[in-house]
Amino acid sequence: MLEKLVNGFESHLFRNRKWVILSFIFITLFLGYQASQLKMDAAFSKNIPLNHSYMKTYTKHQKDFGGANSIMVAVEDTSGNIFNPVFFDALKNVHDQLFFIPGVERSQVKSLFSPSTRFTEVVEDGFAGGPVIPADFSNDEFGLNVVRDNIEKAGIVGRLIGNDYTSAMVTAQLMEFDPQTGKPIDTIAFANQLEQELRVKFENDKIKIHIIGFAKMAGDVAEGAKGVLLFFLIAIIITAIMVYLFSKSVMLTILPLVCSLIAVFWQLGLLTVVGFGLDPMSILVPFLVFAIGVSHGVQMINAVRRRVLDGQTTKAASASAFRSLLVPGGVALLSDTVGFLTLLAIDIGIIRELAISASLGVAVIILTNLILLPLVISYFELPKTPDNPEKAKRIENLWRWLSNFATPKYAAIVLVSTVILYGIGFQQATKMKIGDLQGGAPALHQDSRYNQDTFFITDHFSITTDVMTVIVEAEPEACTYHSVLSQIDQFEWMVANTPGVESTASLASVAQKVNAGFNEGNPRWEILPRTTASLVQAVGQVPTTSGLLNGNCSVMPVYLFLKDHKAETIEVVVKKVKAVAAELNSDTLQFKLASGPVGVMAATNEAVSEAQLPMMIYVYGAVFVLCLISFKSLKATIAVIIPLYVVSTLAQALMTLLDIGLAVSTLPVIALGVGIGVDYGIYILSTMSNKLTNGMPIQQAYFEALVERGSAVIFTGLTLAIGVSTWFFSALKFQMDMGILLTFMFLVNMLGAIIILPALSAVFWRKK
């Protein structure tokens, strides 16, 4: 039945090949235009699991306390002392410039020049205070001395002023939408504006500008992603050389490359049609689409070339190759597509868009490389010059040697070695960490400008962006009750003594300091007042702009400043917070995770951890079902899947050896590797199955499968691996990590298909 459908489809296509090719041309022109309209999109909300419980807390209180999408600008005086007129002019200019950049939440811009940056001191009559920089500030020696004294009184050293007085900080929260246009903030354009309006304008020999925050990181990642175009060009050149060496024909080199590039144009154009943009992760997908397209194109030209050498005309050879490859190639590409679609189960926007982007790209390869390519080839006359006899003999000897893996003796050695290798890999894979394993921005190299700015701020200030905020929800006016604040104080003390927590801040700890101030600054009075009147007096000195309480005092965050955002640090702190919260939570008082940059990371890590096993089940489940439908044999399906599973485990072991954590950028790699790696086994086993059905011995069936498909399979593995290996030199660390892992998976999956698969076949079909 299936064979009849394929034959009918082939007959219809080749009878109308001119009109089919014209249709492809018109579609390519349309989608090529759509691809030219594609824009970069790196919205903050795409990078977080919005439906996670932490993120629901985050979005609920984002308006009152800001979110994780913040910017920190450290202004450094290269002379080592900020108290000079040049520095204060520069700091004021940076504050004012940042204040007026569209997309900045102006009420949340803080620095020495913010009216909300105030000091309080104890005097004979009680308290006195005012702005750290007074209204009549003069930028001279007297004025600077006044500001120096006010800074000491305000207790902002380490927060807005560097610990060594060499730098000062300007911080801001970003909006999700541009108030002027109502459209989402263009994160990459905003990052470029930060660079031009702050660093370029104000940095000189005396002043240095250091900028960190999600928007700036996204901008630097997008800048690094521009290098992808160069890698793409290099990959095309390398692939062209390899295809020519394989085919020995200029025409057979150009055609699969052109069809694969058409698939890339279609994929990019379809992204615009469905309303998506390119983000730093999905910008890598065209690479994969091109490489996968070439690999299937090589299978096609190999099949056509072999038939031409057997004496068929090019048109007949193209039609025959189409019939023989449509089902195995279609199943392989459908497996890739469904495998990528399983990534939709991960509730993170950037991964879901990657899944859709990759699925669209692989799906169109079915049209461009399994249908268009043979139709176009049929119009050309191919040379009928056979390979050099000596070369052909050497290749045949290689296939003879490899066919030994399909004998019981060699199969036993291969399978025992595979079990031992799997055991070692599994033991190592269990050590894999969820999250980032290095300091700074994990998407960038440690020596990148962004990470150098991060390390400067970490070294010179007591606080950084590594902040986790625990939201305390209570009844209105709850902060006027001693029982509530004492619970918060107890929570803060218990969490502050957790490894990885550098310091903490909350309304409870600040109220204690204010109470001491009301009692002549005596440290013995640094406690929470027990009477409501005294407590109201202490809390009343803390404005809502401090971020320590909301308007009706029903929400009071506890800020945890961590030493870093490494996976282990976050895991330890989250575990402690959950344990303490479970102990202290009541009907009227709830400690909820989490807000702040590290709160977002914690939610992301948990989402990745929860998605890991289901994603693997979905990927292998999809491949299993499609192979079962294709081969109609459980043994054949298992023979294809076992090598894939072994390689996936070894890839996870490699991640632990290279200190690569399982994060948003590396989670899709396993699905990509499995989805693409299954192609090798499908092509080889589909050829073997037909011969085994006709009663051929297993070793001979494998030998003839290698003769027919072996060169193309090995070539495909090498082409895919070399294509992504260029990513080793990327300015983006996450792209380099993906390149290492995908290179490993493409190569080892190919080896698994030509070594482990025949060994399994020798066991499953030993009677043959």
From TrEMBL:
List residues traversing the bilayer: 19-36, 227-247, 254-277, 283-304, 325-346, 358-380, 401-424, 613-631, 638-658, 664-685, 706-728, 740-765
Q: InterPro entries attached here?
A: MMPL_dom, Mycobact_MmpL, SSD
Q: How does it sit in the membrane?
A: Multi-pass membrane protein
Q: Does the keyword ATP-binding apply?
A: no
Annotated signal sequence is none
SSD domain residues: 220-379
Record key words, sorted? Cell membrane, Membrane, Transmembrane, Transmembrane helix
Tree of life domain? Bacteria
Chief location category: membrane
Q: Where in the cell is it found?
A: Cell membrane
Q: Which Pfam families match?
A: MMPL
Q: What is this protein called?
A: RND transporter
| Gene source species | Shewanella inventionis
